[in-house]
Amino acid sequence: MNVLVDTSVWSLALRRKSEDLSDGDSSIVAELTELIRAGRVRIVGLIRQELLSGIRTPRQFETIRGALRAFPDELIDTSDYEAAAKSSNECRRKGVIVSLVDILICEIARTRRWSIFTCDADFVNYAKILPIKLHNPRK
């Protein structure tokens, strides 16, 4: 199964120094490495943009940009946005506030039958309402 990797995971791998990672963070980065080796990683332009935003130096920007170039963006179409809006409404009716980016990630993964690899706890709340699958790192 392909895995849509969220900004939070990419950020650990590409924006943080390995010596600054906790053991849990290191296991997440190791899992990402294994998923990359297996050819299962997917990304969308919004995640790419989030990851590249707020970088302080042009050098770091170019390094991360270059690393991400190995992963083409999954195309997003009108039906993805419409489904995300519907899911957003469903979550809100059930008292769960969503971010527009997160809910679009949920719908892209759901419609393509991918799992989502994230460190963002909000996705656990979305998974209680939406039929999405979260990727759990192998131990």
Description:
The chain has helices spanning 7-14, 23-37, 45-52, 58-68, 78-93, 100-112, 122-127; strands at 3-5, 41-42, 115-117, 133-134. The chain is of the alpha/beta class and 139 residues long. Strands 2-1-3-4 form a four-stranded parallel sheet. The mean pLDDT is 94.
Topology summary:
Blueprint: E1 3-5, H1 7-14, H2 23-37, E2 41-42, H3 45-52, H4 58-68, H5 78-93, H6 100-112, E3 115-117, H7 122-127, E4 133-134
Helix pairs in contact: 1-2, 1-3, 5-6
Q: Radius of gyration over alpha carbons?
A: 15 Å
The CATH homologous superfamily is called 5'-nuclease
Task: State the order of secondary-structure elements, H for helix, E for strand.
Answer: EHHEHHHHEHE
Mean pLDDT: 94
Kindly identify the CATH topology: Rossmann fold
The major beta sheet can be summarized as: 4 strands, parallel
Global shape: globular
Strand content: 5-15%
Short description:
The chain is an alpha/beta fold and 139 residues long. Helix content is 55%, strand content 7%. It has a single domain (3-134), classed as 5'-nuclease (Rossmann fold, 3-Layer(aba) Sandwich), CATH 3.40.50.1010.
Label this structure with key terms.
about 140 residues; alpha/beta; Rossmann fold; 7 helices; about 55% helix; about 5% strand; globular
